[in-house]
Design a protein that fits this description.
With about 140 residues, this protein is mainly beta. It is built from 1 helix and 9 strands, in the order ββββββαβββ. It is elongated.
């Protein structure tokens, strides 16, 4: 089975209309997430002969990305506006395989950082906190 290359992947932000229309953020250079974890719930009773455990709800964590600043990128401007307003928004991460694997989720922009240095380009680092479930088309 062939590997899925990151070249051609995209992180997209929805416009909020119905139906949702997604626009790719220009200049994304790397991404991480969604990640996931579950809390361990101790279900042990006095009659137990060993620790009994259950798991809590899935927490899909965060999606982070770094990209180059692209003047006038409407999706990046919307991401900044979401950070400023603290609003929940619809996002999509799309892989480069065929048919495309995609992950849809809602999230808040927790952090938005511009950075630069000598002999570099202006970059952005953005962290999105996922709220609720992540849906995918893997099945």
């Amino acid at each position: 089975m062939a590997s899925v290359k990151t070249q051609g992947c995209s992180l997209q932000l929805a416009d909020g209309a119905s139906p949702l229309v997604y626009t790719a953020i220009t200049g994304v250079m790397s991404f991480s997430g969604p990640s996931g974890s579950r809390a361990v719930i101790d279900a042990t009773t006095l009659a137990s002969t060993g620790k009994e455990k259950d798991v809590g709800l899935a927490d899909y964590g965060q999606v982070t990305f770094e990209g180059k600043f692209t003047q006038g990128d409407a999706a990046m401007i919307d991401a900044w506006d979401n950070f400023v307003a603290g609003t929940l928004h619809d996002w999509r991460l799309v892989f480069s395989d065929s048919p495309e694997t995609q992950f849809d989720f809602q999230g808040y922009v927790l952090s938005f950082n511009y950075q630069g240095g000598v002999d570099d380009i202006v970059r952005t680092s953005v962290t999105i906190e996922i709220s609720g479930s992540v849906t995918d088309n893997l099945a």
